[in-house]
Amino acid sequence: MNRPERNAPLVLGIESSCDETGVGVVRGTRLLANTVSSSMDEHVRFGGVIPEIASRAHLDAFVPTLREAVAAADVTLDEVDAIAVTSGPGLAGALMVGVCAAKALAVATGKPLYAINHLVAHVGVGLLEPADGATGAAAGVPGGLAGSLPENLGALLVSGGHTEILRIRSITDDVELLGSTIDDAAGEAYDKVARLLGLGYPGGPAIDKLARTGNAKSIRFPRGLTQPKYMGTAEEPGPHRYDWSFSGLKTAVARCVEQFEARGEEVPVADIAAAFQEAVVDVITAKAVLACRENGITELLLGGGVAANSRLRQLTEQRCSAAGIRLTVPPLSLCTDNGAMVAALGAQLVMSGTAPSGIGFAPDSSMPVTVVSA
Amino acid sequence: MLILAIDTSAVASAALVSDDSLESVVGSFATADTRSHAEVLAPGIEQLLSGAGLRGADVDAIVTGVGPGPFTGLRSGIVTARSLAFVWQKPLYGLMSLDAIALEVAESTEAAAEFIVATDARRKEVYWARYALTAGQLPQLVDGPHVGFAAGLPHLPVYGAGAGLYPDDVRAVPEFASRQPEAVSLGQFALARLAAGEQLLDSTPLYLRESDAQVPGPRKRAL
Ligand SMILES: [Zn+2]
Q: What are the residues whose beta carbons fall under 8 Å from the beta carbon of A42, sequence distance 6 or more?
């Protein structure tokens, strides 16, 4: 195997944990290409991601996506120093496609392979700089982490597949899960409620748009796991102090809709959408900021597809600035699942001297966040 | 001509076959189980190549079994074959996985003139195909592949692990009652068919079943 370049390694990243087939290329912390093929349209009529459909789409999208990414980066596979692939967490059958493809690339090219954690990759993407030195082009948002990891970093990840708050002491070997959803992911709750309200899939953008015309205060939906028995105190934390639950909220929305229907009244869809969104965003940001304050986190990175939600961004910014926390939100194309984030974390692992994973590992659909690379 | 053949329609297997070598086999491996494809396939291929002192550039074509077989395992072989073919810039062909067993039947002493090959499709069903045999010829696929209950198969001798699972329902041939499709036979079949100037398939998987997804019905209203 070639010895990877330690200063600014050229890394190819592969992502297939859900419904996006992503291949990205980075050199050190510079983004060179980020190509994504999504099977989202094929899931619309089902109202949610169907794992088998996603897996079939990954199989057919992989080589074309790879070809396009390598061309966009203007590199050859021969020049690549290392390959990185999401090995978990995610949908088992979907992960399998990307992992087998990555292993085949490693065999065919002789390059070292890193099996990496999808959640930590969402954080790694925050370290990318703009593609060509222009600001804002790639990860170059004002306030980006800009190449080096700050002290006291946390990450709030919100998507259709996950909802977590992490503490990152070292992105290559010390990541801690402070809290997570104990049932549905936030994005999943959006999808289910959108279906209840007849708003279609994906639910996030539909609810976000309609919520702007509704009155969020007209109905009060429950905030899961906020009772004292779950929260405890800072000194004696309860069992779910930083955890979320959205299944009760979804049930409450269903009840609410039924009650309007039973009374023969028109369902105030916009108000319900606004009140639901407020409940989700309120409890996510309140608990995330609490976790930051109580763990000395002063820099927070927001990642995952739900980072596109206008109300989540707004309230996270408000509450972070009130608590003296600096917030970083990568551009949306890097917040949603993609291969560049996998490559970005892979490059960090190469630069830290972490040993590659080899080609014998198995994908792990429930890979814990403490395992940065297998 | 040197072919790298891969089949993961049941067990994970790969083989290097060449018309230059004895019995045309340069090397091969196959797992005993049907659930470790992701772990063993790539290391197995790497060892095959290094064991034979060969590199990707030495391979003339890649052949992959395209099923039918359980989906997740099946895809692991196909995506591996597609990726290798892309990097090495080699032609990629597909072969129906049941053909591997059919070739072994044709080469065995107890071959019947018409027979069925069946493998485990899980959910109490089998993948199956019907073949005809003329002396000195490659087995000819005459019907299939299909997926269905073993009890519904035509009344012919049935070869392969799918027969061994349902001995009460089919005329299982004992010597083949646990036989799975393997890359070595698939590669030999491919070699023979290419030599005979026949066309092979592309690498499109033969799923035979739709995904289980159900389009959700309209929500019941409270009224
Ligand atoms: Zn994600």
A: A50, A53, A57
